[in-house]
Amino acid sequence: MRWIDPSAPAAVCVGPDGSRRSSAARLLTGSLPPPGALRAAADGLRFEAAAPGRVISGGAFELAEAHATLAEALGPDLAPSLRPAFEWYACRGAFFHNDAHYAGVLFGVWCVAGPPRDIVFPRLGLRAGAEPGDWVVFDPFEPHAVLDPGERTYERARYVDARPSVFAGFEIEVNEASRLAFAIADSPRGVELSSRTRINAETGGIE
To answer: Which CATH number covers residue 146?
Structure first.
């Protein structure tokens, strides 16, 4: 696994309940072949009808083999913070958005199927690979998109006939261990990010 430390300043994450915390100052990435049972489950899903640009859910699930494999990759400090449930997500590209309703967790996606794409974080000036086997853990308050490699903006026409990316989403509790690992400060300051933040769907700029 690899830690990525962006140069952008931390933001203030404002949850739906009014809670406030600093955004994660780091991203965690890795590459891990999905277990056969996870690949087989993904093969049984049908996401071809998904509207371009939108992330759709295929439902929550638990798979002990996948959880154990991912927990081992996360290491002894973070593994206890990994929640047992996964959720299927798929998209044919995804426009810029955030997921600020996940206030008490850091969000992770493990790409199980689909063409090579990138998860792009414009405020941080970063992108992470998203082809089968790639996984990334990030702050769900950060604006992000799923784009073709090298692309900086979301253009719907690129994804109308594209194959979907299929992800196993997972969550890491925001607790003492994850705060330390992801450098989440106790005293939040900076631009505010919340479910009310206006994000340009094509560029990811905060409006």
So the answer is: 2.60.120.10
